[in-house]
Amino acid sequence: MEERKGKQEVMCGTLDLSALPLGCITLIISFTSPRDACRLSLVSTAFNSAAESDAVWGSFLPSQYQALIPSSLSFSSKKQLYLSLCENPLLIEAGRKSFWLERMSGKKCYMLSSRDLSIIGSDLPEYRRWISTRGARFDEVAYIRRFRWFEIRGRISISMLSPMTHYKAYLVCKVRNFCGLQFFPVKLSVGVVGTEGSKRSAYLQPKKERRRWPYWQIGEEQPIPGDDVQFPKARVDGWLEVEMGEFFNEGCVDDGELEMSALEIEGGIVKGDLIFQGIEIRLSTAELDTAWESLLPCQYQDLIPTLDSFSSKKDIYLSLGGNPVRIEGGRKSFWLDRVSGKKCYMLSPRDLSIIRSGPPGYRRWISTRGARFFSLDCHAGWV
């Protein structure tokens, strides 16, 4: 680089990045993010070698991660360990919490189990049971069969969260019969203990299943939801979640606690059949949606009929990765390969030209269990 006298002009020569020592490239990549490391691995052979190294992926793992990994698990590389922590949440603290990493950034996420929460109510504990249910992350979840009011609180040490990270908390639950839960919203809040946190309201019944009941059945006029009241959204794992609030961890406070609460104390009528799995603390979708949307196909909005049922672009991606959708009038099915995001298709028999010997009467269109399409010929289709 040289600077010409009398002029504020700087001339820079070219730099051959591949000429840098491998250790230097490795150190540089280790200061980026997992997403950047994957992209940089495509630059050259030297960058690929550095980006795949244990030194790089070890820098993306949380400190003292060795204590979190069961001795029964073994991994061939730090990258494999990192990807496992993203896809397979670990139970920690005697199974009272689950822990995982957000795949794009490596930030820490948690779910507090119902055993790790304070759950009190008008008719507890005689109407509360601990049950096992399919799709739950924990061995037991709280099933509340009957109550007139309830109060749920959960706390987590701020030191366990990633610094300089925008988090949101979600109440994860299921409602069996929606008994009384459609009448009064739950008061939700998130904030550091001893401070005024963010507050909002939400119903625990999905909006599409909400219906008004006559006055005489609930004893008072049913309130009309305001524009600021939320409704739960379906998760990919089959549970419902409702956003409780948000919190930005600046990383300046290590000895405080973050508290999340859900209260329904105003209704007074009998409610029940509510299952709590826990409270999930994960990165704000605003921080992640741009990254996940870049992995979705163009015009993905036209492929999914109920976009408002997904809480994030990540949930849309995971849904397309596990649940093929029918397109073009049901003549094709479409999905994404979950690992690479590549588009995949199946052509239905209706979309094929099928010519064979014999009269047309020997071909029939039938419906059969397990097929992706409503009617099938003698061939299921080609992928």
TrEMBL record:
Q: Where is the F-box domain?
A: 14-60
Query: PROSITE patterns, per this entry?
Result: FBOX
**Pfam families for this protein:** F-box, PP2
Q: Identify the InterPro entries for this entry.
A: F-box-like_dom_sf (IPR036047), F-box_dom (IPR001810), PP2-like (IPR025886)
Specify the protein name: F-box domain-containing protein
Question: What species does this protein belong to?
Answer: Gossypium tomentosum (Hawaiian cotton)
